[in-house]
């Protein structure tokens, strides 16, 4: 029987703030970078991209592609769609990411090595990429293809920017400005400016695809970066020795060249304006202009950023005047009158040197060596800000006062800068050199040079940070409350995890402490050092006096008991699990084994050729494994010291080995090894074979820790990452692993062999095709070829059958290929088209290149069918034109191919003409709609930020409270492809457009509008009076009104209902205002609250005003009007939004007094008991009958009052009525933009909100109350299951609610019964504001019986658990 093993897989990564492989990009946050926000930092984290909230230091999202393990080397943000980012990778691939959904939307492959720089053009539809392979590629982001490749640099590309000149502004005769317009305007594609490490700067004409200008950028050998001014009129290149070269760009000349149909570059457009020298003499690796102000920043690889200021022309003239005055004074001129008061206007700025325009402003000293920087531009900031990503794994934000703000100070003084924000806690500043897991595997200690951090393994969060020396080893002491660290200076440092304090520092050794281990009995530890000794330390508790008092407190200290001296430096020590032996690895390549009790030598282990760096002993104390700098692993028996096996394990020094610490699954002799070759390997110590290779780290792996259970292991690397690898249920077999490794080797060799030679004819040309063969493209090409072959066979078969059927109608259908039958009996052409459609647009051309020329007749046959039957004409044209371009010579030389092309041309023209007619009709329809909208007084639809509607354009129920950007008219009104008979009524299509206005109607509960306007004028300046007031149809508890200001801006007012309230604890709009206002600065989507008015003389009751969210309110939780994919994502975001609320700490947002953090369900029971009795006594004003008590109240209260059965307290902000119809969804995206109706919010147990949202799932099997249609399993496509919701919730909050869910469901139905009873009580007093109040009030009886049924179920299950 073949032995199988359980597979380990990478599960999570933490400890990385940013990698030094890529640049940092600053972005405004989702709120538009409102005042008080510092935006987000987008950084690389090895193979991932991280999005950090700079102010909070929290990780917002992690962008990871499971198919990519290469490091991120370059980042860029689109300036048109700020949610789109481009990431370049070490393997030469590029991915476009949508930051809203953290998903890669497009991927490109064209470069042969790492991407060095990326840049979007102004329109956001093109992307330029530069690489270490010296090529520049322009990508079309709409068509998702590479346009062309530019060659010319002889070393890696270090900088590139699009230059897209605009029409110059000229002065007219009357002095007014006029824009020059070309007489024959054309589509200006622009230019590209690039720099290379070979010290060249090149200007490329994108339209003609060739280089029009080349200069030597630097005089000292290499050019490292390029920075272009925001207006494109100049640039700066950086080189060695702190050299900065300034260039001017003739944008007017470039615009003139771009407007010429056959323009040729006859002039120079780049002009050398001089050289600047920064104070740092190292190479300048980055330069960046401020997007708005006259500053630029430059940095090298040192711990400094130099800020330069660009002077205005007036300042330059003053500077020249002062210089002229000083020259005259030095020359001793007798012209006192002329020299005393100079006419500054007489100075000509054109005579100034470059140093007069650019002056060093301030040098910012950073906390680490700078890798990259970006400018931060937030609203309300009175200084310039920049964010620096340093090589020591941190982000820093610096604020520098501008010249205007610091002009009061003396001109000689440098402006004072401050480090305002930083992201540093989630990672170490230096490499993690040691790891240790607590006894319960819940905590992880990681130690580095200067820092010790304690992590929660499950949530990957840092819970403690300590300062320490240069740590080389670390261990938890028994009890997991104290951590001991061994340092390079020979000290043992003790840290208390609970109090976050250092307990003691012991000078233990004269040399570095390379290793330490706690004795298996937990009463002592041993430390090994470079001073050639191993020392043994006992744990001792003593009473320490508390200063200023007579009391004492127990403290732990280490007491030195014994010393073992050896002949060389000690690198590693290990106790055997049976406490009998101690193994000591020495610098002389040997391992010595001693008896622990007598410290007498037992065994000498010889064999390694270089020092043994680490070792471990198996659970049964029979095997010892050693690893060495000689790249070998050796297994020894501890009985006689014989070497069982020595094998070459890694390609570099092996740093760590560790056995699985138990033998539960027969894996007690399995061990792991880590190396400088970036790999972790899993070995079978009995068979001496490699089980699995774990790839993921990008640099040497310094530390390794295996959990006590063996279910996971943790590794730390020079790449700053700490990775957790978990054991899965997937079985692996050694033969299969070998085959996988051989396949990977074959694939990498195959793709390498397909790359063109560097000296080939194609690579010598200045322009080439942007493509690269990968395994993906090869497989796609093979699938297309296979589909063509079986498709042609099927076409012939079906053609013969049609001919036979013409003569014999009863002819049986032929036996087609089983593939077509398995796919539902589709036709051959449909199958071929589906295969081509499944190929990614970016990989299609490379996949088509795999097809041999002999397959072209088959491909053209199907293209002709596609054209005839109007099957995906855009794709048909793309494939046809690419194949014509690729095989032009062979096609022209073939008469058969020419005949086929004639047929394709005729059919394709007919198809394109039909689509052209449809497009023309749709354009005409849009013009008609535009005219109708204009006639009704609505603004012209010119831009999504200015187009607005003033009429009710639909009847679908929606509501909201913050104005989201309006969509374009073409996206609101869906015009389908129409023929003439379908031109029935464009007005009817217009009427199907939906807005939120239909949700507000007549005011059912009148208010004093004049008093409200007077209050608004004094307290809410954002609202312009007079106002128009309407009342929303929703809101059975608190009446809700729509306020439309004089300028058309909409707001929302919530107030208490009129009259005497049944309960003092209900209808608390004051609490609604407080919680909404507190959550505005968090990532929980809530509307902005403007004011709270508790003066009842204004509208009769207390009220507050908030902003208006223009989105979707979905009353049916099955969401019938959306697609299955959108339905899944909307529910996912609903549960994700709830989890975000529940992970907030009340004290962080000022809600610590909003409610008590403990005893939530006790208070709820007491509250609902009181409310229920008050509601039961309410008497109908007409019938004079009381509402009455709810069923089984006493029995229900007795069950819930048992504290042993109640869920454990958690104390987070809760909504109190969280459900789908209390959420506002974005108009066109599956995400929540706001949570409404906070009147029942408090500090309580998050389980109550989760149960409330999941209530429809628990009504499927009920008979007392009608279930919600669509929630039966499988009935509604895309509707997630209840298990999915619980899983998604736990992923964000970090706790699993499943064990407490039954109790919560029962309480949820009890709570719902009280709410229905309250609606009945309000209807009885005629205070309810909804027409459905009476109907909903009647639901209290069946809901009460349902609550009693769930109470009995929960009680039985709790008894079952108790018996277990």
UniProtKB/TrEMBL annotation:
GO terms for biological process: maturation of SSU-rRNA. GO terms for molecular function: snoRNA binding. Residues 1028-1254 form the Aminoglycoside phosphotransferase domain. Residues 829-929 form the Small-subunit processome Utp12 domain. The keyword GTP-binding does not apply. InterPro entries: ACAD10_11_N, Aminoglycoside_PTrfase, Kinase-like_dom_sf, SSU_processome_Utp12, TBC1_cilium_biogenesis, WD40/YVTN_repeat-like_dom_sf, WD40_PAC1, WD40_repeat_CS. WD repeats lie at residues 108-141, 425-465, 506-540, 605-646, 647-693, 694-726. It comes from the Eukaryota. The keyword Repeat applies. Residues 321-344, 749-772 are annotated as: Disordered. Keywords: Repeat, WD repeat. GO terms for cellular component: Pwp2p-containing subcomplex of 90S preribosome; small-subunit processome. SUPFAM superfamilies: Protein kinase-like (PK-like) (SSF56112), WD40 repeat-like (SSF50978). Belongs to the WD repeat WDR3/UTP12 family. This is WD40 repeat-like protein.
């Amino acid at each position: 029987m073949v032995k199988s093993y359980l597979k380990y897989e990478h599960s999570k990564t933490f400890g990385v703030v940013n990698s030094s492989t890529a640049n940092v990009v600053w972005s405004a946050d989702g709120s538009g970078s409102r005042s008080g926000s510092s935006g987000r930092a987008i950084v690389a984290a090895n193979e991932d991209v991280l999005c950090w909230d700079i102010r909070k230091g929290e990780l917002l999202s992690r962008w990871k592609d499971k198919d990519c393990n290469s490091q991120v080397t370059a980042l860029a943000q689109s300036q048109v769609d700020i949610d789109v980012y481009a990431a370049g990778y070490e393997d030469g691939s590029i991915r476009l990411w949508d930051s809203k959904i953290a998903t890669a939307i497009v991927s490109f492959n064209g470069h042969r090595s790492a991407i060095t720089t990326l840049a979007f053009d102004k329109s956001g539809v093109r992307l330029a990429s530069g690489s270490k392979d010296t090529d520049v590629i322009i990508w079309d982001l709409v068509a998702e293809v590479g346009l062309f490749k530019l060659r010319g640099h002889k070393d890696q590309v270090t900088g590139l920017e699009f230059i897209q000149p605009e029409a110059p502004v000229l002065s007219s005769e009357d002095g007014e400005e006029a824009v020059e317009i070309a007489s024959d305007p054309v589509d200006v594609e622009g230019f590209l400016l690039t720099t290379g490490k070979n010290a060249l700067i090149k200007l490329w004409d994108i339209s003609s695809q060739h280089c029009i200008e080349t200069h030597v950028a630097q005089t000292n050998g290499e050019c490292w970066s390029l920075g272009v001014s925001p207006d494109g009129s100049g640039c700066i290149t950086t080189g060695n020795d702190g050299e900065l070269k300034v260039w001017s760009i003739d944008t007017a000349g470039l615009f003139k060249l771009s407007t010429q149909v056959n323009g040729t570059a006859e002039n120079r457009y780049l002009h050398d304006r001089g050289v600047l020298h920064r104070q740092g003499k190292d190479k300048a690796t980055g330069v960046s202009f401020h997007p708005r102000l006259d500053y630029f920043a430059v940095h090298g690889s040192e711990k400094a950023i130099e800020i330069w200021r660009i002077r205005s022309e007036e300042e330059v003239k003053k500077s020249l005047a002062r210089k002229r005055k000083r020259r005259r004074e030095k020359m001793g001129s007798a012209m006192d009158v002329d020299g005393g008061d100079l006419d500054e206007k007489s100075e000509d700025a054109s005579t100034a040197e470059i140093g007069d325009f650019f002056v060093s402003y301030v040098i910012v000293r950073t906390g680490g060596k700078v890798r990259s920087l970006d400018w931060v531009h937030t609203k309300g900031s009175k200084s310039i800000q920049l964010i620096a990503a340093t090589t020591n794994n941190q982000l820093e934000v610096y604020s520098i006062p501008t010249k205007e703000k610091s002009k009061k100070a003396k001109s000689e003084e440098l402006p004072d800068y401050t480090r305002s924000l930083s992201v540093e806690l989630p990672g170490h500043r230096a490499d993690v050199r040691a790891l240790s897991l607590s006894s319960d595997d819940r905590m992880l200690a990681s130690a580095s040079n200067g820092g010790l951090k304690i992590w929660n393994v499950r949530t990957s969060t840092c819970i403690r940070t300590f300062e320490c020396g240069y740590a080389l080893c670390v261990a938890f002491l028994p009890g997991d409350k104290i951590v001991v660290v061994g340092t390079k200076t020979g000290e043992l440092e003790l840290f208390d995890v609970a109090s976050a304090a250092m307990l003691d520092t012991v000078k233990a050794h004269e040399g570095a402490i390379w290793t330490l281990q706690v004795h298996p009995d937990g009463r002592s530890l041993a430390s090994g050092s470079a001073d050639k000794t191993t020392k043994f330390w006992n744990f001792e508790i003593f009473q320490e006096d508390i200063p200023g008092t007579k009391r004492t407190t127990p403290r732990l200290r280490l007491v030195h008991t014994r010393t073992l001296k050896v002949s060389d430096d000690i690198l590693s020590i290990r106790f055997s699990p049976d406490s009998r032996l101690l193994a000591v690895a020495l610098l002389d390549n040997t391992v010595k084994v001693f008896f622990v009790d007598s410290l007498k030598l037992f065994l000498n282990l010889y064999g390694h050729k270089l020092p043994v760096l680490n070792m471990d002993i198996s659970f049964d104390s029979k095997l010892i494994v050693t690893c060495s700098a000689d790249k070998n692993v050796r297994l020894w028996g501890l009985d006689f010291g014989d070497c069982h096996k020595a094998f070459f394990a890694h390609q570099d020094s092996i740093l760590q080995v560790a056995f699985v610490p138990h033998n539960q699954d027969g894996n007690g002799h399995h061990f792991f090894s880590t190396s400088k070759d970036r790999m972790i390997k899993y070995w079978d110590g009995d068979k001496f074979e490699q089980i699995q290779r774990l790839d993921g780290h990008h640099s040497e792996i310094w530390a390794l820790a295996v959990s006590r259970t063996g279910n996971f292991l943790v590794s730390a690397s020079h790449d700053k990452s700490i990775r957790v690898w978990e054991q899965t249920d997937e079985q692996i077999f050694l033969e299969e692993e070998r085959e996988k490794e051989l396949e990977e080797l074959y694939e990498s060799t195959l793709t390498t062999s397909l790359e063109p030679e560097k000296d080939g004819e194609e690579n010598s040309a200045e322009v080439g095709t942007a493509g690269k063969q990968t395994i993906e493209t090869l497989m796609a090409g093979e699938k297309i070829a296979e589909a063509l072959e079986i498709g042609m066979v099927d076409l012939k078969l079906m053609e013969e059958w049609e001919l036979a059927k013409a003569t014999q109608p009863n002819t049986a259908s032929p036996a087609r290929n089983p593939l077509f039958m398995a796919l539902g009996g589709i036709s051959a052409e449909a199958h071929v088209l589906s295969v081509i459609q499944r190929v990614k647009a970016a990989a299609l051309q490379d996949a088509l290149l795999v097809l041999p020329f002999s397959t072209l007749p088959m491909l053209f046959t199907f293209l002709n069918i596609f054209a005839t039957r109007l099957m995906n004409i855009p794709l048909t044209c793309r494939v046809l034109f690419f194949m014509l371009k690729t095989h032009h010579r062979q096609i022209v030389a073939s008469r058969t191919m020419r005949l086929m092309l004639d047929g394709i041309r005729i059919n394709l023209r007919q198809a394109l003409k039909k689509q052209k007619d449809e497009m023309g009709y749709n354009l005409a329809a849009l013009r008609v709609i535009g005219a109708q909208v204009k006639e009704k007084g609505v603004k012209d639809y010119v831009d999504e930020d200015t187009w607005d509607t003033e009429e009710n354009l639909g009847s679908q129920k929606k509501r909201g409270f913050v104005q989201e950007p309006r969509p374009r008219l073409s996206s609101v009104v869906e015009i389908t492809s129409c023929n003439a008979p379908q031109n029935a009524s464009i007005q009817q299509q217009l009427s199907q457009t939906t807005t939120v206005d239909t949700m507000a109607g007549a005011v059912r509960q009148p208010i004093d509008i004049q008093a409200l306007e007077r209050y608004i004028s004094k307290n809410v300046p954002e609202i312009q009076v007079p106002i128009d007031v309407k009342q929303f149809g929703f809101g059975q508890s608190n009446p809700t009104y729509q306020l439309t200001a004089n300028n058309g801006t909409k707001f929302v007012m919530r107030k208490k209902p009129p009259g005497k309230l049944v309960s003092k604890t209900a209808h608390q709009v004051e609490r609604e205002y407080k919680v909404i206002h507190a959550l505005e600065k968090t990532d929980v989507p809530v509307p902005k609250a403007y004011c709270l008015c508790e003066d009842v003389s204004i509208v009769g009751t207390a009220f507050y005003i908030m902003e208006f969210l223009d989105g979707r309110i979905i009353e049916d939780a099955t969401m019938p009007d959306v697609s299955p994919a959108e339905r899944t994502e909307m529910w996912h975001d609903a549960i994700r939004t709830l989890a975000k609320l529940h992970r907030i700490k009340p004290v962080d947002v000022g809600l610590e007094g909003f409610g008590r953090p403990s005893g939530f369900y006790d208070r709820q029971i007491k509250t609902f008991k009181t409310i229920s009795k008050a509601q039961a006594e309410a008497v109908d004003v007409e019938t004079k009958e009381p509402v009455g008590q709810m069923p089984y109240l006493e029995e229900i209260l007795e069950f819930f009052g048992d504290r042993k059965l109640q869920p454990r307290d958690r104390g987070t902000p809760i909504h109190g009525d969280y459900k789908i119809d209390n959420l506002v969804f974005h108009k066109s995206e599956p995400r929540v933009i706001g949570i409404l109706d906070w009147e029942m919010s408090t500090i309580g147990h998050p389980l109550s909100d989760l149960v409330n949202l999941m209530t429809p799932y628990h009504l499927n099997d009920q008979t007392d109350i009608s279930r919600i249609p669509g929630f039966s399993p499988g009935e509604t496509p895309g509707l997630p299951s209840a298990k999915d919701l619980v899983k998604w919730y736990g992923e964000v909050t970090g706790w699993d609610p499943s064990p407490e869910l039954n109790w919560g469901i029962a309480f949820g139905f009890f709570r719902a019964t009280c709410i229905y009873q309250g609606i009945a009580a309000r209807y009885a007093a005629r205070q309810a504001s909804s027409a459905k109040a009476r109907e909903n009030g009647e639901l209290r009886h069946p809901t009460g019986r349902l609550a009693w049924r769930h109470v009995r179920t929960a009680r039985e299950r709790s008894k079952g658990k108790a018996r277990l």
